[in-house]
Amino acid sequence: MAGLSPQTPQPTTITVHQQSRILEVGFSDGRQFRIPFELMRVYSPSAEVQGHGPGQEVLQTGKREVDLLALEPVGNYAVQPTFSDGHDSGIFSWDYLYFLGSQQDELWRRYEERLQQAGADRDAPMVAASGAACGNHH
């Protein structure tokens, strides 16, 4: 997880918009981002999504309708969302939220590319990979 540096803008406002499924975050440098829950869920910084190293990422699908059930503060540097699909292990630091907000277009493009390469549909339900759980070695 990216650490905080003195240059990291701090959030001044965080608003959850349930109807539009958007997390609105205003930062101390004046920038304001509207981050879709789906983008947050697809790019969750958790090991469950990111894997344990490059190339280990788990392609997420069926997250367009995901809701944000809770958003808990983690110290003074992050928030931990609970999503309606039960995912709650991602800790989103301020700089990671800033990254998601500022790089949205590129992140969506990369997501669409990965779906295409995998021959996956964005709205297909997730298939549980057998034996792929953390620490589950055969």
Your description of this structure?
- With 138 residues, this protein is α+β, with helices and mostly antiparallel strands.
- The chain has a single domain, classed as NE0471 N-terminal domain-like.
- It contains 4 helices and 6 strands, in the order βββααβββαα.
- Strand 2 and strand 3 form a beta hairpin.
Using brief descriptors, characterize the structure shown.
NE0471 N-terminal domain-like; three-stranded antiparallel beta sheet; 4 helices; alpha+beta; globular; disordered C terminus; single chain
Q: Summarize this, please?
A:
The chain is built from four helices and six strands, in the order E-E-E-H-H-E-E-E-H-H.
Largest sheet: 3 strands, antiparallel
The chain-level mean pLDDT equals 89
> Order of strands in the sheet with the most strands?
1-2-3
Helix fraction by DSSP (H/I, runs of at least 4) = 10-25%
Looking at the overall shape, the CATH architecture is: 2-Layer Sandwich
Give the uncertain stretches in residue-range form. 130-138
Instruction: Please write the CATH class name.
Output: Alpha Beta
How would you classify the helix and strand content by structural class? Answer: alpha+beta
What is the name of the CATH topology?
Answer: NE0471 N-terminal domain-like
Total helical segments: 4
Helices and strands, in order, run as EEEHHEEEHH
> Which term fits the overall shape?
globular
Report how far the terminal alpha carbons are from each other: 28 Å
Number of strands: 6
Strand content: 15-25%
What is the CA-based Rg, rounded?
15 Å
Total number of distinct structural domains: 1
